[in-house]
User: What shape does this take?
Amino acid sequence: MPSPNRKPEPDSRREMAYFIEMRRNVLRYARTFPPGGARNQHRQIALSLRRLFRNKTWLESHALDG
Assistant: This one.
């Protein structure tokens, strides 16, 4: 029998829209930099996020509607 004082564990998964918006924001932020290392670094982060979106295993464990 569960304890009445025990709180349910928070769900760390997010909506897919949250991840899509995060990627968009990273790309927009990257565009504020002149071409070079800092801009490329932020573009690589956005690219990595896109790769995660295509990974079904990752989506099932981290996204609510993935």
